Amino acid sequence: MESRPLYLGPRLKRLRRELGLTQAVMADDLAISPSYIALLERNQRPLTADLLLRLAKAYKLDVSDLAADERDDYARRLSDVLKDPIFAEIDLPALEVADVATSYPGITEAMLRLHTAYMREQQALAGLRGDGPGDTDPLAEARRFVAQRRNYFPGLDSKAEALSEEIEKLGGLQEGGLAEYLRQQGLRVRLMPAEIMMDALRRYDRHAEQLLIDETLSPQARRWQMALHIAYTALRSEIAAMVRGASFSSETAAQLVRRALAAYGAAALIMPYDRFARAVEARAYDIEALSGQFGASFEQVAHRLTTLNRPGQERVPFFFIRVDAAGNVSKRLDGAGFPFAAHGGGCPLWTLHDCFRRPGEVLTQWLELPGGERFFSVARSVTSGGGAHGRPAILRAIALGCAAEHAPKLVYARGDQTPATPIGVTCRLCNRSTCTARAEPPLGREILPDDYRKTPEPFVFAES
To answer: Which regions span the lipid bilayer (predicted)?
Structure first.
């Protein structure tokens, strides 16, 4: 059977971008012209066997992975999408669908992404999205994966702890020790100007065996990027095994979990379990003191505190949340029994939202939910980005919390006799009748008219 020409334009373009290369640099590496690279990426030329071998050799890639033809898979996926009832009145012969997938993979990918976004919005409108077992939202799937394992991954902790001991002998777990470890792995660490980094904070140059890091990053951030690279490489097999062992509805969900596991491994590397757990007890969960001791950021330490769940060596169980000024949740770790809202914003009475008015200040608060459950919260603003003129800094707020019964172990709660603030999970699920901060009436409650009487509260509810 005659073999088909191999057109891998979108994949070649994706690979080049992942490697952080321009067309000119890749062309130089492969000893061809930049214009030929452009033709390959637009699927106007097939990828020859010789060029496939050059790619694999230049960037240390597996030939079989590069050569895999995606056309049949694209055709199948596009056919599945076009079975949606929204296309029912359109005549779509299978031959035409296959021709589009083969000749126009970029258009096919755009169509697949658009339909995926459409389906997610349809699910959201139908009220199907949340954190339930049947939810296929990638972010919810990733959160569920972590929550089901109580944010504790013993294999990563053990391997990272062994690595940290090895790195300690090379100069400690600071920037110098990590760079020396990477050097011994045949990788040179270089700090590069932002314009060279092509909008990346960290870039692994496989061809030159270099780890390039944006020189405008703080020492803490540079160290974190090195630790992340070590996690992605030295813990690769452990991370891959865990991702393969789970069943995800999309590649995006799998990638989110892979990213979370790499971050877990990086934190376990610079804050090894045993040493960190002992320091936590000695410093009574003082996040700023632990940050100074381990050379990690406030957020990294707070995040690591949620992972101390080794059987027999558990510490205080925490929940963690990170929000922006608009209330969007960008990170959430369930724990300590706190019932996060699946839909809508959080309670405005929580000091988490005050962090934007009081940047850099640690805000503590006793919380009480409508059902009587009590929690203790530690919140503070954190900043990312910036570092140079024209690069905006992003201000977010994080909160770390635990059940009231564990709060006496925290330095922040000792001697704090302030009364608990009555909060709700979200306005739509909170039946407190005297809340002046309410944004919406709760589900299932009728509101009374205010023709003749107006109260400080936005809504007054009928008794039944």
So the answer is: none
Q: What share of the chain is helix, strand, coil (3-state, %, to 5)?
A: 45, 10, 40
Q: State which amino acid sits at residue 436.
A: T
Q: How deeply is 296 buried, as exposed, middle or buried, from its count of CB atoms within 10 A (0-12, 13-18, 19+)?
A: buried
In this structure, which long-range contacts are made by residues 323-327, counting pairs with CB atoms below 8 Å and at least 24 apart in sequence?
Answer: 323/352, 323/353, 323/396, 323/397, 323/398, 324/394, 324/395, 324/396, 324/397, 325/356, 325/395, 325/396, 327/353
Strand order in the sheet with 188-192: 188-192, 210-214, 202-205
pTM of the shown model: 0.78
Q: Give the closest residue to 347 by CA, choosing from 279, 420, 256.
A: 420
Q: Cα 351 to chain center, whole Å?
A: 24
Q: What is the pLDDT of residue 249?
A: 87
Task: Please choose, from the candidates 239, 67, 238, 264, the residue with its C-alpha nearest in 3D space to the C-alpha of residue 151.
Answer: 264
Which residues lie closer than 8 Å to 190 by C-beta, 6 or more apart? Answer: 210, 211, 212, 213
Q: Are 212 and 190 in contact (CB under 8 A)?
A: yes
Q: What is the pLDDT of residue 281?
A: 96
The residue that leads in pLDDT, 103 or 224, is 224
Q: Give CA–CA dist 261/81, Å, rounded.
A: 32
In this structure, CATH architecture of domain 154-270: Orthogonal Bundle (1.10)
pLDDT band at residue 70 using 50, 70 and 90 as cut-offs: low
Distance CA 345, CA 426 (A): 6
Q: Which helix (H) or strand (E) segment is 101 a member of?
A: helix 94-103
Give the Cα separation of 137 and 69 in Å (integer).
Answer: 28
pLDDT per position as a tens digit, 74-118: 788 888 888 877 787 788 888 888 888 777 777 887 888 888 877
Q: Residues 263, 153: contact at Cβ < 8 Å?
A: no
Would you state the CATH architecture of domain 316-425? Answer: 2-Layer Sandwich (3.30)
